[in-house]
């Protein structure tokens, strides 16, 4: 499992986590970058079905941040 | 419940000013998923389909949608529900619906008798028969007749 690059889908709230991620980019903090981000207007918008579908379609994990 | 791996889902709360925290969280998630290795969706196809159908089911959607109303304003009889009671009922409904959809997926896969379903999904025979009777009423499955004295079901 040396070169395993996990596919992770991240549902980020526009007002909290997405802005936080943006700031992390602006302030040039080093962080792993193979996350696939989906910006949502509220983390309450994330339906559990999204997670199931992400897993079904080949993601290895999911992060919901708000 | 589905055994798909709840450690693959991470939840986190942070504010827009916490860039450092975001970096910490994303590194943590990467590390955790990296350690768990790749997810094999084909191995869990039946569980994933059943979980998706459960989340889409009318009963679950209805119950989740009515939570605030049942807790704050009461049901049609004006009874306010305790949060613990609501959660117990929701857990119950989720388990039952998930088992029903698991049975349906097993039938779709070609395990059409009660024993074959049991061997595929590992629930008790009595519980499977009970749920099958329920599923017949709601047109999720149909009774197709007997094969060598064994009742056979089909998915609708």
How does this structure look, described?
The complex is a heterodimer of chains A (66) and B (156). In chain A, strand 1, helix 1 (17-26) and strand 2 (35-40) form a beta-alpha-beta unit. A three-stranded parallel β-sheet of chain A has the order 2-1-3, sandwiched between helices. Chain A has 66 residues and is α/β, with parallel strands linked by helices. Chain A is built from two helices and three strands. Chain A has helices at residues 17-26, 48-56; strands spanning 8-13, 35-40, 61-65. Chain B has 156 residues and is mostly helical. Chain B has two domains: 6-36; 45-155, Arc Repressor Mutant, subunit A. Chain B contains seven helices and three strands, in the order βαααααααββ. Chain B has helices at residues 19-36, 45-56, 58-65, 67-72, 83-108, 114-121, 125-137; strands spanning 9-12, 141-147, 150-155. Chain B has a two-stranded antiparallel ribbon with strand order 2-3. In chain B, strand 2 (141-147) and strand 3 form a beta hairpin. In chain B, helix 2 crosses helix 5 (83-108) and helix 3 runs antiparallel to helix 5 (83-108). The radius of gyration of chain B is 20 Å and the shape is flat. The model of chain B has no long low-confidence stretch (mean pLDDT 91). The chains are: A alpha/beta (66), B mainly alpha (156).
């Amino acid at each position: 499992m040396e070169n395993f690059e996990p596919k992770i889908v991240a549902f980020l709230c526009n007002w909290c986590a997405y802005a936080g991620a943006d700031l992390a980019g602006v302030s040039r903090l080093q962080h792993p970058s193979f996350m696939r981000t989906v910006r949502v207007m509220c983390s309450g918008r994330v339906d559990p079905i999204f997670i199931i579908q992400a897993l079904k379609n080949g993601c290895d994990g999911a992060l919901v941040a708000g | 419940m589905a055994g798909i791996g709840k450690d693959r889902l991470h939840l986190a709360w942070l504010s827009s000013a916490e860039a450092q925290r975001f970096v910490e969280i994303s590194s943590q998630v990467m590390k955790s998923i990296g350690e768990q290795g790749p997810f094999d969706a084909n191995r869990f196809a039946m569980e994933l389909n059943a979980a998706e159908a459960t989340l889409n089911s009318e009963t679950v959607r209805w119950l989740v949608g009515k939570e605030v109303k049942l807790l704050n304003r009461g049901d049609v009889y004006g009874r306010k529900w305790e949060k613990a009671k609501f959660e117990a009922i929701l857990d119950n409904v989720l388990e039952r619906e998930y088992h029903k959809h698991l049975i349906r997926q097993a039938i779709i896969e070609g395990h059409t008798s009660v024993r074959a379903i049991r061997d595929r999904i590992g629930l008790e025979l009595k519980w499977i028969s009970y749920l099958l009777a329920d599923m017949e009423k709601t047109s999720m499955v149909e009774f197709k007749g007997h094969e060598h004295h064994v009742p056979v079901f089909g998915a609708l």
